[in-house]
Amino acid sequence: MGEAATAEVEVIRSEEVRSHGGPVARTLSDAPSHRVLLLELTPGRELPPHRPPSRLILCVLQGTAELLTGDTTRWLLAGEVATVPAGIARGVRCPAGRLVALAIVAPPPSADDHLGDESVAWPVPSPGPDPAAVIRSEHRELISGVAHLGLLAQRLSGGGVDQLEGEIRTAIEFLEHELLPHARAEERLIYPKVERVLRAEGQATAAMEYDHRRIEGLAADLGRAAAAEHSDEARGLLQQLATTVQLHFDKEEELYLPLLSRLGPEERQAMVRSLRGGHPEEPTPRQGAGKGDGDKGDTR
After folding, report:
1. 119/203 Cα distance (integer angstroms)
2. What is the pTM (predicted TM-score) of this model?
3. Which is it for the CA torsion 260, 265, 269, 270, positive or negative?
4. pLDDT digits 0-9 by tens, 176-201
5. Which helix (H) or strand (E) segment is 165 a member of?
6. Which CATH architecture has domain 8-114?
7. Residue ranges of the domains in the chain?
8. Neighbouring residues of 267: CB distance < 8 A, sequence distance ≥ 6
């Protein structure tokens, strides 16, 4: 009996629910008392406002949903749930990205219940305050101080700390009274909101991919500087590469790699096989290999 029950289990990943322009509504359960739908909407697509005699429970699984109830709109992120009483006009649309949501309607509405309600319309959007513009403005105010840190580092290469004591003290005051307070404010006010959106929209690894593109650019610049025999420029690029790569490795190993332990064993095994070029066996160290040499998998 257990085997038969297991055979009936269907696992649906959100990436398997794909539309081809219009909304997707996949019925997962249809009973006289309720209907369960898996919805997928792309930007600009919507379930138009309608007024069915059914209660709606909407659970956002991925992305952001704009939910119209009566004459009010609410924005829901992944992990948030809304309930709409029967007889209340409702509509759902995707403002950006990709929306995947679970909808439970009870009782199941008829085809006529989904006809649009002309008495209800989406409100005209009005631009609100932009916190990103505030942060960008602060960055522009801070960037001159950050640039001075780099210039000071170059000057230190030609003289002792005692010769630049006053400027170093000024740099420390800039860090303590301007840059670090800015960073703490971001952690308190901005990052929690960004994290909510990242949970909804994904792209949590976009910052790491940006590092990769940055490293590629620095490597290309270094090649050009070396070909032109610009030693000062090459020295600066090498320093940037060393710092950027080390920080990137630190972020990967401290923040990202531990998360892989939350994957299932089969998925982890498949990843290991791919990282090792299709060979799941442990690599055999070469004779005479030093520490760390020969114990790395093929990461092609």
Report:
1. 38
2. 0.60
3. negative
4. 999 889 889 888 888 888 777 777 77
5. helix 165-174
6. Sandwich (2.60)
7. 8-114, 130-203, 205-273
8. none
